Amino acid sequence: MRATALLLVVMFSVGAIAATSDAALDARLKKLDEELRCLVCQNQSLADSNAPLAQDLRREVRSLADAGKSDVQIKEFLVARYGDFVLYKPPVKGSTWLLWFGPFLLLAGGAVVWWSVSRRRARPPRETPGAVDGTAVNAGVERARELLNDPRA
Amino acid sequence: MRSLRLLVPLALFVVIAVFLYLGLARDPSKIPSPLVGKPAPAFTLAQLKAPDQKLSTADMKGQVWLLNVWASWCVSCRVEHPLLVQLAQANVVPVIGLNYKDKVPEGIAWLAQYGDPYKISVVDADGRVGIDWGVYGVPETFVVDKAGVIRHKHIGPVTPEALQNTILPLVRELQKA
Question: Least CB-packed of A75, A92, A123, B67 within 10 Å?
């Protein structure tokens, strides 16, 4: 009787340990699958997609994980076959330099434009010859006055 | 100086327009394969029509060959199929078929119905070899050189233009090498 009870306890605890490590593996695989792109339906991750290829690749990822491969090794395996496209986060390298840093270049460009425009606005208006010529203004005012006083109007 | 500054928006527009125009011509479903220029992934698979016999990539060493990924459930395979049959009749280059995620009787029946352009078709029932070759859609066609290096990958049905302008010239060039 006692032996049976002990056996049951052992069996249940083995089951429980197996279940928790399975849950950990599932969580790890889910996270990994979310970082990998399904190549058929390209706006879905492997975790989201139900395409047959996504199912196959999920199975492949799981068997690689079971074989003790690290996340990095699993990603390398897929990149070797499908290219960087399979990664949602492209690696930083020559061909992706613009992709990674382009937005910051645009931001810097915008900052330069904003700075130069605001500097020009802050400057007091310059007296340019002709446009704000005293005699020309006076002549204009004189002409306006004449028109206003014109009895024909 | 002022007129130069006025040209800046125009220049920006031209740059963006060129990029967008080039983007129009690109098909996002065609993902460039990292395997081009690399040794073809090795496989040893059972032959479709002779299940007790196997074909291995090593058997193809020394000749230029095409690997065509096909399946009886693949509708667009039917589009390219007459062209492959013609190619086989011309006897220019051996075409090996990779029967991808298909059922053997259905594959055999399909070849009986539409004609069999393949020197040999091999069975990749679970798609495992397909993954090694970076297959993500059917049909796909690879050009493999004498040394067993993948030289070209065509995604989607082979068109007469792709065959005449790209695949066959490449095959002839590789055969001379």
Answer: A123
* Exposure letters A7-32 (e unless 16+ CB within 10 A, then b): eeeeeeeeeeeeeeeeeeeeeebeeb
- Cα of B47 to nearest chain A Cα, Å: 22
If you measure CA to CA, which chain A residue comes closest to B34? A83
Q: Which residues of B touch A79 (CB under 8 A)?
A: 34
For A83, the closest of B32, B101, B131 (CB atoms) is B32
Task: Using the CB atoms, write b or e for A51-74: b if 16+ within 10 Å.
Answer: bebbebbbebbbebbeeeeeeeeb
* B177 Cβ neighbours under 8 A, 6+ residues apart: B145, B146
**Peptide bond before residue B105 is cis, with ω within 30 degrees of 0:** no
pLDDT in tens, A40-92: 888 899 999 989 999 999 999 999 999 999 999 999 999 999 999 899 888 88
ipTM of this complex prediction, to 2 decimal places: 0.83
pLDDT of residue B100: 96
Q: Which residue of B has its CA nearest to A54?
A: B136
| Residue A81 touches partner B, C-beta closer than 8 Å | yes
Q: Does A71 touch chain B (CB under 8 A)?
A: no
Q: Inter-chain contact A85–B136, Cβ cutoff 8 Å?
A: no
pLDDT in tens, A120-136: 888 766 655 555 556 77
